[in-house]
């Protein structure tokens, strides 16, 4: 005990004899054998009894008696006693012969047997306790889920009450008083008020007369019918009415700001209502935002409700269907917002282009816009900046207009999606270029980068594919065509029906029909409006109606005129005339060549000449063709390569030059790059020696 001095400890060798000792006639022991267990029952004096009174299966510790510790098992407790060696408290059992002695071996066997039995009892009791705890936890969890479902439903009801109050404020206060002022005072138009509040009256009636009463009734019956899925499933389809309100929300905000500045009466009515207590010190714009946010709130609460709803609940099917309908209503509102933004963008384009109002059509969708460079057919070096507007049904090709006010662009060409084609142009002179071909015009355009070019091609192709899917007549016409009709060449099918791709002037040096060289005085360049070839005035002195140009007369070449007018062309002269070695088109040879590129020849005086187009045909690998331009229909000259040796680059010479040597004849060429020089040297060496021609085809 606290405050007592510890007594000298009893020696351990007296332990076996002490278990039958007494405490001065007041502490006695009684030993008896019960179920092969030795039980020591102690009778304590009143002074120390409080140190031994413990509950079942606990350890009783007598404080203040010092060491050593002795375990005394019993049917009720197992005590750890600290005994002290005091003659006044402990006497040897020999002085008390009336107390029966206990054999020590039997005593310790009983202790071991009791400990085993006690451990088994504890395990059984522990398992029983754990089972009881688990059952209690499951019951508590079930009750918690039910409470959560009720709380979510109650939150839905509470927020619905607050929302209906907000709708009442918008419809019965703001809208009603502004409408009354507009009708009586006439300081601002009545239509402006109706545009601002849109269909707020319909929304208010739906929630106040249908949604809220049904939800309130169901919550009152929650004890007998705990579900809300059926209520939501019945009323959720009407939430699509929010699309009209959401679509006009931005316009409503603009109208409020405009008329707050224009009309003092309009401002006075709104500010007067906002000062009232029902507004909660919030503006009209803040209150009008509430319907926009309401449907996402329904969706969030219903998802939370479903997450707590058991899998086998009766309300789960209705709740899941309700969530699907509400999600569709939310998408409908988002689509309405997107449509409104798209329409606003169309109005911006309308203002930039200065077009008539038919341009602003809700069915039109702006897919892409941006600046590009227009490749000129006349000049080989000049590119002009242009602007494209790609819609779902057309492409507008525009020219920037530099003006401080009014339209910013002038529409030069409108290309409809019907019949449009787009493809990449692999042109070394104009990288990142692509072709857009429509029925009325064909454009060669250049983007700023490869990624931008690919983005334009992808956007145009997607618009073309989408337009073809919508045009069922197009599919029917293609599927009904016979096999023979489908084998007709594309040129024969579309000649005169769509604008051709014009061949650039710098790519040819002679007429592509009669093969006579051009000059600036008597043989100038002209384009055939049917096939796009560059021809002279003699070969283009014909006119015929072209379908793509609304059947107006256009200048065409003789061959196209013959095809379009249905006349038979006289070929006697061409049949009598044998085609010479030079009568091969550069495009034909370049398309199936071993090597082709621009080269420059160096004369005997070391002067580098103009660029010319050189090509080695696969069909005639022993001949090097020389053209003035890549699209010429007749070669300027040819060089037989058999017997020539390729001379490697000498020190001090141009790094891109190489020579062809045969006897005393030396031809010097300058390539566009060192890479091209190496390819030419390798190709000519193999051709001249008849080695390894076919591997070069790769």
Description:
- InterPro entries: DBL_dom_sf (IPR035899), DH_dom (IPR000219), FYVE_RhoGEF_PH (IPR051092), PH-like_dom_sf (IPR011993), PH_domain (IPR001849), SOS1_NGEF_PH (IPR055251), Znf_FYVE (IPR000306), Znf_FYVE-rel (IPR017455).
- There is one protein chain.
- The chain has 698 residues and is α+β, with helices and mostly antiparallel strands.
- Helix content is 41%, strand content 19%.
- It is built from 19 helices and 23 strands.
- Strands 9-8-7-6-12-11-10 form a 7-stranded antiparallel sheet. It has a 7-stranded antiparallel sheet with strand order 20-19-18-17-23-22-21. A 3-stranded mixed sheet has the order 3-5-4.
- The protein is elongated, with a radius of gyration of 51 Å.
- Residues 1-102, 477-490, 568-578 and 692-698 have low confidence and may be disordered.
Concise structural overview:
The protein has 698 residues and is α+β, with helices and mostly antiparallel strands. It has 19 helices and 23 strands. InterPro entries: DBL_dom_sf, DH_dom, FYVE_RhoGEF_PH, PH-like_dom_sf, PH_domain, SOS1_NGEF_PH, Znf_FYVE, Znf_FYVE-rel.
Helix fraction by DSSP (H/I, runs of at least 4): 40-55%
Q: What is the overall number of helices?
A: 19
Q: How are the strands of the largest sheet arranged? A: 9-8-7-6-12-11-10
Low-confidence stretches: 1-102, 477-490, 568-578, 692-698
Amount of beta strand:
15-25%
Organism: Polypterus senegalus
Pfam families: FYVE, PH, RhoGEF, SOS1_NGEF_PH
Subcellular location: Cell projection; Cytoplasm, Cytoskeleton
Domain FYVE-type: 505-565
């Amino acid at each position: 005990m606290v405050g007592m001095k510890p007594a000298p400890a009893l020696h351990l060798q007296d332990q076996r004899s002490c278990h039958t000792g007494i405490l001065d006639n007041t502490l006695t022991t009684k030993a008896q054998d019960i179920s092969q267990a030795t039980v020591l029952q102690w009778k304590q004096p009143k002074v120390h009894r409080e140190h031994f009174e413990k509950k079942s299966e606990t350890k009783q510790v007598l404080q203040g008696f010092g060491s050593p510790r002795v375990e005394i098992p019993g049917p009720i407790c197992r005590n750890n006693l600290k005994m002290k060696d005091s003659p006044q408290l402990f006497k040897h059992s020999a002085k008390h012969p009336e107390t029966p002695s206990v054999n020590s071996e039997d005593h310790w066997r009983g202790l071991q047997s009791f400990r085993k039995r006690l451990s088994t009892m504890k395990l059984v009791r522990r398992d029983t306790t754990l089972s009881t705890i688990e059952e209690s936890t499951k019951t508590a969890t079930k009750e918690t889920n039910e409470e959560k479902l009720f709380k979510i439903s109650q939150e839905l009801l509470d927020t619905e009450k607050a929302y209906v109050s907000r709708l009442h404020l918008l419809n019965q206060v703001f809208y009603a008083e502004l409408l009354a002022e507009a009708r009586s005072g006439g300081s601002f138009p009545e239509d402006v008020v109706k545009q601002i509040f849109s269909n707020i009256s319909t929304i208010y009636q739906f929630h106040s007369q249908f949604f809220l009463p049904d939800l309130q009734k169901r919550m009152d019956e929650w004890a007998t019918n705990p579900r809300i899925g059926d209520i939501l499933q019945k009323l959720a389809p009407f939430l699509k009415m929010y699309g009209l309100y959401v679509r006009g929300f931005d316009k409503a905000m603009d109208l409020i700001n405009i008329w707050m500045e224009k009309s003092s009466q309009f401002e006075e009515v709104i500010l007067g209502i906002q000062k009232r207590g029902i507004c909660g010190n919030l503006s009209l714009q803040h209150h009008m935002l509430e319907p926009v946010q309401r449907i996402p709130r329904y969706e969030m609460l219903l998802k939370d409700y479903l997450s707590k709803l058991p899998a086998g609940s009766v309300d789960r099917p209705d709740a899941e269907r309700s969530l699907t309908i509400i999600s569709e209503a939310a998408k409908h509102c988002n689509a309405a917002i997107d449509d409104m933004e798209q329409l606003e963008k169309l109005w911006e384009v309308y203002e930039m282009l200065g077009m008539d109002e038919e341009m602003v059509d809700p069915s039109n969708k702006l897919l892409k816009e941006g600046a590009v460079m227009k490749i000129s057919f006349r000049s080989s070096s000049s590119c002009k900046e242009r602007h494209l507007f790609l819609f779902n049904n057309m492409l507008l090709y525009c020219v920037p207009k530099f003006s401080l006010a009014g339209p910013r662009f002038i529409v030069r060409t409108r290309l409809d999606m019907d019949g449009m084609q787009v493809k990449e142009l692999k042109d070394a002179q104009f990288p990142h270029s692509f072709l857009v071909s429509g029925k009325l015009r064909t454009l060669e355009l250049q983007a700023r980068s490869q990624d931008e070019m690919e983005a334009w091609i992808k956007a145009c192709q997607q618009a073309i594919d989408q337009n073809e899917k919508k045009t069922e007549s197009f599919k029917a016409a293609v599927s009904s065509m016979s096999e023979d009709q489908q084998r007709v060449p594309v040129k024969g099918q579309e000649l005169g029906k769509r604008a051709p791709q014009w061949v650039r002037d710098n790519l040819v040096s002679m007429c592509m029909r009669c093969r006579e060289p051009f000059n600036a005085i008597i043989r100038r360049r002209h384009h055939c409006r049917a096939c796009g070839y560059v021809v002279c005035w003699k070969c283009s002195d014909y006119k015929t109606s072209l379908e793509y140009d609304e059947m107006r007369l256009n200048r065409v070449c003789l061959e196209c005129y013959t095809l379009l007018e249905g006349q038979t062309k006289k070929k006697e002269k061409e049949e009598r005339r044998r085609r010479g070695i030079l009568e091969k088109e550069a495009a034909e040879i370049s398309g199936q060549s071993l090597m082709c590129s621009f080269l420059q020849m160096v004369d005997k005086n070391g002067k580098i000449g103009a660029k010319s187009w050189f090509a080695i045909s696969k069909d005639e690998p022993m001949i090097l063709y020389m053209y003035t331009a890549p699209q010429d229909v007749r070669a300027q000259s040819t060089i037989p390569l058999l017997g020539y040796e390729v001379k490697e680059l000498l020190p001090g010479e141009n790094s891109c030059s190489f020579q062809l040597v045969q006897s005393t004849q030396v031809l010097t060429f300058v390539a566009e790059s060192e890479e091209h020089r190496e390819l030419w040297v390798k190709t000519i060496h193999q051709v001249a020696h008849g080695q390894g021609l076919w591997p070069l085809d790769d």
